[in-house]
Amino acid sequence: MTEHYPRIRQQAANGALLLRESLSVCLYIPGGHLDLRQRVLLAMKHFVEAVGPEALGLYASSEGEWCPLDSAGWDHVRAGLLQASCPMIQLRSQSPEDGYGFDFLGKPEAPTPFTRSQDAMSAIRFLLPTEFLDAHGPESMRKLALDLATNLPFSSGHAGLAFDGEFDVVGVAPEVRALCFRYPGLDLLSLNHVSWDIGLRVRGPAWLTFLGQPALAGLGGVSALREQLRAPGTTAEALPGDRAVITLGPWPEAGDTLLGDALPSYRELARVLEPWLFREQHPYIEVLSEDELLRWERRFLD
């Protein structure tokens, strides 16, 4: 356990890593047009440059098999990103212990019978191990998240601590269920479910909460947010394109309800964001029941 978050390492009997704490940067983006895909390609390139070319070593094929991310693998990934009607890109470290990842779930440029009106958003996620934060410090992590976000036309997004693991493996769900209520600052995300339903709403709060339109205007703009958010260390910063980022302190924090640390700055932001907060409609079957999911989503409100 560090001062800011726990060290979680659940392993299988054969030593394989099943669950850990991580850092996650997620952005939700309207549409799936070619210009967006080219921006995603640039964001992926920037991410690899930031974490190192050896950080990602595998990609998921359309059959669900993990394949080497060698030169031919990168060509396959780029072609799929630019040419598929609904690209689904999943990249991971060669070893789960390394903890790096990249996901892009693209959506059609225009709604189809398989999309639910305008609620389906393209979604991008960058995963990093907390060792990256330990090595480079929170300001470098925040700068990387901002660099990645500001070059993408997001409607909302969030960055901070998160669970990363094999939630469907026997024994993992009970561990996550216990830890997610103890450490409220650790996010629990089903990116696929959320990307189909989030629309222009906001998921949060998190260490960094990204606000685009219309949510930012609906919340009164950056000046109104600064007036309402008074917790020490909380800042609201304008970003290009009439967007903003809210930062809750210098470090991402997990909190610990057993020690009475319920993250008051996160609770303050949750109350401000409440009119725009996204409500998940799909219980995480292998982790939380419907009632548990609602209780977890409202952990900063109740």
Please describe the structure with a list of short key phrases separated by commas or semicolons.
single chain, 302 residues, alpha+beta, 33% helix
Can you describe what's shown?
The protein has 302 residues and is of the alpha+beta class. 33% of the residues lie in helices and 23% in strands. It has helices spanning 34-51, 71-83, 130-136, 138-150, 172-182, 191-197, 215-218, 221-228, 264-273, 290-297, and strands spanning 9-11, 17-30, 58-60, 66-68, 88-92, 101-105, 121-129, 156-165, 208-211, 234-239, 243-248. Strands 1, 2, 3, 4, 5, 6, 7, 8, 9, 10 and 11 form an eleven-stranded antiparallel beta sheet that branches. The chain is globular, with a radius of gyration of 18 Å. The two termini are 27 Å apart.
